[in-house]
Amino acid sequence: MRVTPDELKILARLVNDLCGVVLDESKAYLIESRLSKVAEDAGCKNFSELYYKARYENNKTIQIKIIDAITTHETLFFRDTSPFEALQHKVFPDLFDAKAKTATPKRIRIWSAACSTGQEPYSVAIVLHELLPDIATWDIRITGTDISDSAIQQASIGRFRDIEIQRGLKPEILEKYFIREPNSWKIKDEIRAMVAYRRLNLLEPFNGIGPFDVILCRNVAIYFDAVARKSLFERLVKELTPEGYLFVGSSESLTDLGPQFIPQHHCRAIFYQPNKTSLVPVAV
At what angle do helices 28-41 and 5-19 cross, to 10 degrees? Predict the structure, then answer.
């Protein structure tokens, strides 16, 4: 199914309203490759009909299918490596020390925003298991959110195909934390139980989902326009604890958002502590 210039414009506005992704004239191929089947399944002869059903008939099923088709679900365990090394060797040890001086010394809250099919939050859970031999005595909760219902469903099940496992996982980690099944691997219950999943559109209010000690929101805002990007990170900051850590994608920088976004460097990773006062850049 071919998209006309006029259809591209109205569908781009629709996609932006639904999930914040910005599509320009160069993305006609993306509309055609990802939304043709959605249109055909909905009985639409062209993209204009698909737009009408999604926008004016407010067909929620079609809207969800458009979101699922457009949003990228490409991810893997321990993606980019360096953020997880920074968590293991810097952020979590410092967080444990800081927590030891509070009334809740073993309470940790982490948010994986736009978690896709769950590889990121499960990777964080594995890092914590490796660090804490007495993890059963800790009050740890990891929240994974994504706009895609199908991604959340798969993440909740915790079952991954061979091709999804073969990238990013060391053999010893695979053997320790996964169970072999026919043509797939199932994450063990002790890891699965650490993560709670829910659908969440990052363009919408968070409604007190936090506060969190660590938020990972990586490679999401690169698809947003400047206004939506600024709003997203300003709202994320409000969900962080006073010394909470914010991780973004390796190619992202938040220094343009204000003086509170001072980059901290460790293990080749960059993170921010926007609510911490008297912060100076740290390079290790």
Answer: 80
State how far the Cα of 237 lies from the Cα of 273, in Å rounded to an integer: 9
pLDDT tens digits for 120-168? 999 999 999 999 999 999 999 999 999 998 899 999 999 999 888 877 7
- One-letter amino acid of 57: E
* Beta-strand relationship, 195-199 and 240-247: unpaired
Q: What are phi and psi of 273, to 5 degrees?
A: -125, 75
Q: Measure the CA–CA gap between 48 and 194, rounded to whole angstroms.
A: 44
**DSSP labels, 215-239:** EE--SSGGGS-HHHHHHHHHHHHHT
Looking at residue 3, its amino acid is V
Q: Which contacts of 13-20 are long-range, i.e. CB under 8 A and separated by 24 or more positions?
A: 14/51, 14/54, 14/55, 14/66, 15/66, 15/70, 16/225, 18/54, 18/63, 18/66, 18/67, 19/67, 19/70, 19/71, 19/147, 19/201, 19/203, 20/201, 20/202, 20/203, 20/223, 20/224, 20/225, 20/228
Return the SS3 of 7.
helix
Amino acid identity at 237: V
Q: How far apart are CA 258 and CA 254, in angstroms?
A: 8
49 in helix, strand or coil? helix
Taking each helix axis from N to C terminus, what angle separates 28-41 and 60-70, rounded to the nearest 10 degrees?
140
Q: Please name each of the domains of the chain with its CATH number.
A: 5-70 (1.10.155), 82-272 (3.40.50.150)
Taking the CA of residue 269 as centre, how many other CA atoms within 13 Å lie in the half-sphere pointing to its CB? 25
Q: Say whether pTM exceeds 0.85.
A: yes
Amino acid in position 158: G
